[in-house]
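Moderator note: this is an archived Q&A kept for reference. The question asked for a predicted structure of one protein chain; the sequence and the answer are reproduced below.
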Amino acid sequence: MLGKLRRKFILINMLLVGVTVLFVFGAVLILTYRAERAEIDLALEEAMRFTDSEKPPVGGEPLGDRIQLGGREPVSVVPAVAVRVSDAGEIIGSFGNGAEMEDDILAAAVSAVQAKGRERGTLSDMGLRYRMRQTPEGVLMAFASSAPLYTSVRNTALIAGGVCAAALVLFFLISYYLSGVVIRPIAQAWEGQRRFVADASHDLRTPLTVILANLDILRLHEKESVSSQMRWIRGAAEEAERMRGLTCQMLDLARSEDLGEHLALIPTNVSELTERSLLQFEPVAFEKQITLEGEIAPDVILDSHGDSFVRMLHILIDNGLKYTKNGGTVRVFLTTRGREISLSVHNEAVIEPAELPHIFERFWRADKTRGKGGWGLGLSIAKNLAEALGGTIRVRSTPESGTQFTVTFKRI
């Protein structure tokens, strides 16, 4: 599916760029053609103007290079030949601006123009472009080869085509690379969703299996009293409670992922919230023979959401108590430094370096922590809550200092 999406992305990009390149290519050819044709037409006009600047010589003597206009040479650099034709159709004078035509070809060109009867156009069979103008002394005609026009267009087409082809190849490579960049988060989300469904199904299947097994036993002993079957009833109830806990955490995770768009942050005394949370967890710590300590900076005000802040902190403290051995210590720090506020929860457990990149993934649990309860959703929820509150969460763990989760907020 993702491969198909990537191919569609590349195809759409290439179609858009291909149409744009084709448009530019056509525009360049059209502009080149018009510019070259305008240059030829200028040469024809100049040739006729020079020829018309002096009366026709007697006996059809060519005007040649002795015709000037104001002492300057023609503007155009395109070779052209201009002739004056009498009313009887005879050539009575000519001017060559760097161009030469044999008499028979020139006569054939004059005849072809007279047959066409148009003031300008192209003699395709002879490869000439012409202009014609009527004057009191006769008809002026000018001819220039159209070969430079087509040569220029062909060369432009080859160069522009090569550039366009190279641009398309380059853009294909860029599109291929960018499609990978665009698809990567989608692939990660897709993989995360697939793993989420697989892990949730696995964790839900075990209690369901136990519940169904207990119900089958109860059906086999349907004549027995309820009190004699309490073992199976209690087992089914415990597994149902575990399923409810899992579904509630899954719902919390879904809500936390969408929380940032709807959360209203107001000035909150997070010092009071932190101290209150420590008091709530003291019985749990006492029962596990764990020392729960706090170093809380007084009256720290943060634009936050009280309930979400407390939920995030409870998850981090509960995680610390869960993985700290009896007799250990869990410490909670709330400190300020300039515009930065840090909330840290430290415990004495150690997370392996290979496991750190996965610590906030949904349903992820280290092998040695399996069997301690939970489904690996708590830290994912804590991460979503931290980001919804405008903070960033990170974890650091070493064998010497233990593990510390730190949430950093920036004061506005």
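Archived answer notes: The chain has seven helices and twelve strands.
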